[in-house]
């Protein structure tokens, strides 16, 4: 029988074996770093594609998950490691058939989210796009409460409200940083599409955690990579259909020739974009595996200051009063969340030490 472990929201999650605290901490930190790199730089490559002449929305959409072949490298390494420990009979694919359909459905939802995300970032300055996307945390928290019974404290709720408010501030001044040559209608459409992407991905993160809980098999990091691979394949297939209908494949050659940075840089930007987005998605579901969907959502919102600085630096975007207020609220909310996480971890440690002392006293008696 598989051993059950308790996830950070208090619900059971099956695992093949009890992972050591040091290994789980290493995986959590590694996935936080992977998520951070993808979250900070992927929107920049998307925007670079757009401002230098790229106009194919479905192509941008597909690139957000088309980097799944990069996952084959860690998946092969993981299989060789498992084979060395388990022998020649070790299965290449550990995923059970029960998980295939849920992964495909979530993948299609991710593809739809990618389309709205790409349509948004192509019409908005990266700084504005990033701050609007911060509202995703509020939706993540709501769906985590509904689907996986996530527990909240006052500081958790305070963090969610602050991070969400940071995005809402922009809605009242949505026309103050319209890029040159872009109509107000396109800007508003970009704002609405980005907000829609925030809602949908706010649902996707908890539903992945819900799938982990309901999976009738042990959840290992190897399985997490397989899940991400299948979801990315489904999402890319969804986007490729859009590319075929929109005739993007025929247009890519012409677009590369007209790209302001040159033909070679066009293809390099596309490859870099696919790779960075794959880091983002792998990091996001890895954090869910190691901790919770709520932490994944908080990290995405908490990394806004880095995105803000990079966007202003690379694209010479304006940094308005509204953005400064949003940035302040985002930082405040992030600090509030991590302070509460520290307090909760400290309480758990003290409780464990107290229980250990009681057990020692019983042994002495």
From TrEMBL:
Signal peptide: none annotated. The chain crosses the membrane at residues 26-45, 57-80, 92-109, 129-148, 155-175, 187-208, 220-245, 265-287, 294-315, 321-339. It is found in: Membrane. Keywords: Membrane, Transmembrane, Transmembrane helix, Transport. GO terms for molecular function: purine nucleobase transmembrane transporter activity; purine nucleoside transmembrane transporter activity. One of its GO terms (cellular component) is membrane. Belongs to the purine permeases (TC 2.A.7.14) family. This is Probable purine permease. It comes from Heracleum sosnowskyi.
